[in-house]
Design brief:
single chain, alpha+beta, 1 helix
């Protein structure tokens, strides 16, 4: 008795239809994936700045000295340094720093030295600060963790994106007591704790 052996598989037409469908789906997803990457870079840049500010404040408390956070790149790249204002053997000029080429390649910053009013008005953060504005600049924390109140110190930092204006913008600002906060100006604080005002 002879047995029948049948082969199963895809025909060339079925394979071409599958490849076409995958190509269309990838083409639709690439723009949103690119925007997602730029949003991640902005968020990473904002978190880096927030961490640098919190480090400066912590080091000022720990060392009971004036410690300065400095944004160093005049073009708005995210490069910062945390160091003591009065350099000694126990308090170096550079405690920690971040180079401009460390991630967040397309994130850019601009700063304002105008103090944020309390309570913060609803439209306080509606306009973005242009990249590179006010840079280089810094802010100092004293031995009790408060702002050293030097004229021209950073009060607000806006993080935007070099590639796309559609990306999420972040704002990092400093309160009068030296506390730092990162927020999203597109969100209302009344509805979302990540909102600005």
């Amino acid at each position: 008795m002879l047995s029948r052996h049948t082969q199963s598989g895809l025909s060339l037409i079925e394979l071409m239809i599958g490849v076409t469908i995958v190509g269309i789906l990838l083409g639709m997803g690439i723009p949103s994936f690119s925007l997602w990457i730029q949003n991640v870079q902005n968020r990473g840049g904002a978190e880096s700045i927030l961490n640098g500010l919190q480090l400066a404040r912590t080091e000022a408390l720990k060392r009971n000295a004036v410690v300065r956070f400095e944004l160093r790149d005049e073009n708005g790249l995210i490069a910062w340094n945390v160091g003591c204002v009065s350099v000694t053997a126990e308090c170096p000029a550079t405690i920690e720093s971040r180079a401009a080429n460390e991630g967040a390649q397309n994130a850019r910053v601009g700063i304002s030295t105008t103090a944020i009013p309390v309570p913060t008005p609803a439209n306080q953060f509606s306009t973005a600060i242009a990249k590179g504005t006010g840079l280089p600049a810094g802010v100092s924390f004293n031995g009790i963790g408060r702002l050293a109140n030097a004229t021209g110190d950073i009060a607000r930092i806006d993080i935007t994106n070099e590639i796309s204006a559609e990306t999420r913008r972040y704002v990092v600002f400093l309160g009068p007591g030296g506390h730092t906060r990162m927020c999203d100006p597109a969100l209302a604080f009344a509805n979302n704790s990540q909102g600005c005002s």
